[in-house]
């Protein structure tokens, strides 16, 4: 009679999860760093808008800088929360999680490219740029590890089943 058992995931799945967890740590560090540099960074973001259209009031530039900063920050935190959810779903072998993780990686890449032009404009933005690049690299590495044959077989099996007869299971006594 088949018995459901909990078998550990293969090494490729464990490495992919480690990469994704490290990317979450890097993303949290990036969001934290962005929050820390918020005060000195806001005038520099306002200067970026001032270069585009110099005929507005200073409050307009400050408001635009606030809106852009908090939007980027909120998207980074939202992507982190989504990726935590996707990691848990992947570890529970939900279908199509690799595609969702890939989509969140694409979203993070778009946010990185857009915020590079507005948020990461000075030397304070260089560490944030590197942190987000590390996060993206770890996400991509995790995706690549999760499509190795062992990982694909592990996720294709919805349940781990051990086959054997009742006689062989009672042999311990």
TrEMBL record:
Membrane-spanning ranges: 12-36, 67-90, 99-119, 131-152
Keyword terms: Membrane, Transmembrane, Transmembrane helix
Keyword Transmembrane helix included in the entry's annotation: yes
Protein name: DUF2569 domain-containing protein
